[in-house]
Every structure is written in C-alpha cells, then in structure tokens.
Amino acid sequence: MKTWSEVAEVQPLASKIITNSIKKDRISHAYLLQGERGTGKEAIALLITKGLFCEHKQGIEPCQECNACKRIASGNHPDVHWIIPDGQSIKIEQIRNLQREFTYSGLESNKKVYIIKGADTLTLNAANRILKFLEEPSKQTIAIMLTENSQSIIPTIRSRCQVIDLQPLNPVLFEQQLTEQGMGGKDAILMGALTNNLDEAFLLNQDTRFATARSLVVQLIETFSDHPEDVFLFIHSRWVPHFKERNEQEQGLDLLLLACKDILYFHIGNEEAMVFFASDDTLLEKAAMSFSQEKLVDALNAILQAKRNLKQNVNPTLVIEQLTLQIQG
Ligand SMILES: [Zn+2]
Q1: Which domain holds residue 277?
Q2: Residue 94 belongs to some domain of the structure
C-alpha cells in the first residue's frame, strides 16, 4: 500500500478520515493507529509523514520520488524518527535521547515526526514525556503511534490521540493472493491465520526458524499424546531454547492455539476449518484420542491466558510451564 488510493481499497474509513484532514490542512498532532498485523499501520504512518515533507505532492498523494519521500521510505530522514520497543518496552531514555537529537541536530525543517511502533509497550514515564513534548506549542511535532494491542494503551495516551481503527483483512481474499503468487495451498491457509501481510507471509514461509517452530508444535502435541510424562523435559530441552524472543514465544503459542483448534475441528467433523494440520495427518487421530473436546476447550482457554501473561511480562519459561500443567489437567 504505497498510495492513499491503495489504502482506501483496504481501509476505506481510516483513509477517508485521514485524507480529509490532510485536505483541510488539519492534521492531528497525535494519531493512534490500532489494528492487527498487516492491516496497514506502517503504510499509513509513512504516507502521513511523506505528505508532510514531500517536495512535489500531487493533491494528497506524496510523489514517492523526491529526496524527502525517498529518505522517509528508507528511514533516513533527520526529522522523522522511528521508535521501537527496546526489549519488552519503550523506555524513557529512548525518548530523552531522541528529543536531545531533535533539539541539536541540523534540522531540515521545523516539523518533526515520531513514529512509535508497539505503542502499547510505552512505559508510563516514556508516554508522559512524549505527551509533554507534543504539547509544547512552539513545536510542530506529530506523533503517530501504532499498536496491535489497543487494550493495553494507557488512557493518557488514548485520550490525547486521534484514534484510527483499522479493520482486519478478509482472510479468504488473502489466501487467494498467496496462492496466486505461488504459495502452496496448505501453507497459504496457515499463513492466512497468522498474518495479513503478503510480504511477511512469504518471509515466514521460507524462514527456517518458523519451520522449526511449526515442527516443535507438532512434536509437543505428539509428546502430550504418546509420552505425557516427558512433556516437561521436552519443554525445557526443546521449546524454551527455541523460542527466545517475546515475538517468537507469542508465535509458538499462536501455532499451538491453531493446532488445538484443529484437533477440536477434527472431533466435530469440521475438517474444512482446519489450518494447522492437513486433514489426513495421522497425528490428528492420535491427538483426538488423548484430547477430549472438553480438554481442548480448557487448553484453548489456557493458551489464551498464557498469551495474556506473556504480554504482561510474566517470565516466559514460567508461562509455558504453567500452560503445560494446565493442558495436562
Ligand atoms: Zn515526494
């Protein structure tokens, strides 16, 4: 999505709200773009920013060709700064450093833009610091905050931002696009369940870490079915060493969630809905024998709880240990 007209096809409402304010020259000083992965948050943030600096705007569309547009696209514009979580959160030092940089560096214009990824991970102090900076009337500063996790945005941020909700994309259309571009049907279905972003889907599908993650989930289900006494050993020797970063841990749980849903679908004969396993997978039958429907519902709830615990920074090893115990009942 490189132009507003492309954004309008996927996110008509968001596009309308923002482009109207561009037309009226009433850009908000703080946006909160909230939506799932792949719904276009970064594309929209880039478009807003390019529009502010572009040297040859055509109507509302930035030209994509001028020096400013190119530097923004490559992340090298001195007045545009991306902030991403440092580990689990965005810390006040990150904001302080940035503001120092903004104050002293040779600036090309009066305008400055912060694009903040994972805005739900801002610490309270970091958030307050940004808000204070935004409220200085002498500064033409715009913050564009992006989040997948709108529940965790602190109220002081939310109340001062223009909140833009991005709609989830249609998974059937997305799978079609993936298969049209050459991805195998089964892979496309799984990718459709994990992301809404084409590039990310192809990257993920070729990623060896992801392939290992997929196979670890299969092995975990197998261990639950065949050697439940070894599950803890498996978790410590295989699972924990593989899933090191928080996003990897979340991905592991997402895959496990999809696998458990599939076993439930297999139970109730809704094999059309399966995304993780192929319907002829021999493991499915075995897994369905060891996991009753009731047990699966409990497992699904436990996995969702584990995901919430991860988001709240509970120790990841503890999270997966607890989850294992809960699944075993
Ligand atoms: Zn331009």
Answers
A1: 207-328
A2: yes
Give the contacts of 141 (CB within 8 A, at least 6 positions apart). Answer: 29, 111, 112, 113, 114, 133, 134
Q: How far is the CA of 49 from the centre of ligand 1 (A)?
A: 10
Q: What is the DSSP letter of 30?
A: E
pLDDT tens track for 204-244: 999 999 999 999 999 999 999 999 999 999 999 999 999 99
Taking alpha carbons only, the member of 205, 214, 323 closest to residue 262 is 214
Ligand 1 center–CA 247 separation, angstroms: 34
Centroid of ligand 1 to alpha carbon of 52 (angstroms): 9
Please give the tally of structural domains in the chain.
2
Angle at 94 between CA 89 and CA 99, to 5 degrees: 145
111-116 sheet: strands from edge to edge: 80-83, 111-116, 140-147, 30-34, 162-165
CA of 300 to the centre of ligand 1 (A): 48
pTM comes to 0.65
Q: Is residue 284 part of a domain?
A: yes
Q: What is the pLDDT of residues 162-194, one digit of tens each?
A: 999 999 877 777 888 899 889 988 899 999 888
For residues 10 and 154, state if they share a domain.
yes
CATH of the domain at 139: 3.40.50.300
Instruction: Indicate whether 319 and 227 sit together in one domain.
Output: yes
- The reply to whether 212 and 125 lie within a common domain is no
Question: Minimal CA–CA distance to 48: which of 63, 65, 62?
Answer: 62
Residue 179 in any domain: the answer is: no
